[in-house]
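Tokens for chain A. Residues wanted.
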């Protein structure tokens, strides 16, 4: 059996380190592992590959992989792989949502606390060496407490489940939008007394959630149904002091509508880790708002990332060899 690992990113952390390959070779001594740091002549390496580990592949490259049975994406997002040839094939596609979910959820909680306590304002004061105690209190929205606040959550996948669990633990009320609302509050144990204060809605009740939420967290995949999910009409449903937090996909937000809501001050603020265009252009108006926190797509950044990648992929590879169901299988019909 042959496994080709191919990662080529400008950001070094996303590229597989030698230690990842070394651990795989020790764990699976009978499997041939090939690492490619780029896609130069990749067709020659994947022609007889059974498995490809990586986050991207072009249609012509996919066609060259005649023996391919499984693509294990090292990223949570897999929309870049949804070309016709792959979607219509028998090749299994898995994503790494479970790898990134816990870390991204921690980033969400950090942004919630930063927004609630207006740490963004404090940082600007620090840069000016200014003791802005009175000025901070005059800001809108003012510093507030997080426990007792309502978290509106779109998406209850690997990220959303962790966000919901963490938010529940600190006393937030969680109102969830999920495709299958009958699944209920499944991020808490069935016998947990906390379950009764949380609410689960279907996508058709998004406006109802937005009207209640103090913090709206987007953790959904990009599909035809979720593109520009947050538009001018949806922003008009939010509380004037509520914050939007997006760690899902840039395409979930209509950025022009978000800019307008921020300019009109009909929205408390926004904390954004993902954008339509990345890197975020220097001339984007989002940089200039005092109530916007921008992080450069780093919610999944952790020094443990390749340890987690190894644990997840090795578990799946054992399952693959044993003929058992894989973890993180993407429904190619749904797009996630």
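Reply:
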């Amino acid at each position: 059996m042959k496994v080709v690992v191919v990662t080529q990113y400008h950001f070094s952390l996303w590229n597989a380190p030698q230690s990842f390959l070394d651990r795989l070779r020790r764990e699976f001594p009978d499997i041939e592992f090939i690492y490619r740091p780029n896609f130069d002549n990749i067709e020659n390496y994947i022609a007889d590959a059974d498995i490809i580990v990586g986050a991207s592949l072009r249609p012509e490259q996919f066609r060259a992989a005649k023996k391919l049975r499984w693509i294990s994406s090292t990223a949570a997002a897999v929309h870049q792989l949804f070309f016709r040839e792959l979607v219509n094939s028998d090749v299994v596609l898995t994503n790494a949502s479970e790898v990134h979910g816990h870390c991204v959820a921690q980033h969400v909680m950090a942004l919630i606390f930063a927004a609630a306590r207006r740490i963004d304002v404090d940082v600007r004061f620090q840069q000016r060496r200014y003791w802005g105690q009175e000025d901070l209190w005059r800001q809108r929205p003012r510093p507030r407490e997080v426990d007792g606040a309502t978290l509106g959550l779109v998406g209850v996948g690997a990220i959303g489940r962790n966000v919901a669990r963490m938010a529940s633990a600190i006393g937030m009320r969680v109102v969830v939008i999920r495709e299958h609302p009958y699944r209920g509050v499944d991020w808490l144990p069935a016998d947990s007394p906390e379950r009764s204060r949380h609410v689960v809605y279907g996508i058709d009740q998004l406006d109802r959630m937005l009207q209640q939420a103090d913090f709206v967290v987007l953790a959904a995949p990009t599909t035809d149904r979720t593109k520009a999910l947050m538009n001018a009409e949806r922003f008009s449903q939010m509380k004037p002091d509520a914050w939007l937090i997006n760690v899902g996909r840039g395409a979930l937000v209509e950025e022009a509508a978000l800019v307008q809501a921020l300019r009109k001050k009909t929205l408390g603020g926004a904390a954004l880790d993902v954008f339509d265009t990345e890197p975020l252009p220097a001339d984007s108006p989002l940089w200039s708002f005092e109530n916007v926190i921008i992080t450069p797509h780093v919610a999944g950044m952790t020094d443990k990332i390749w340890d987690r990648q190894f644990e997840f992929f090795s578990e799946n590879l054992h399952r693959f060899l044993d003929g058992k169901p894989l973890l993180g299988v993407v429904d190619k019909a749904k797009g996630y």
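The longest strand covers residues 2-6. The chain has a mean pLDDT of 96.
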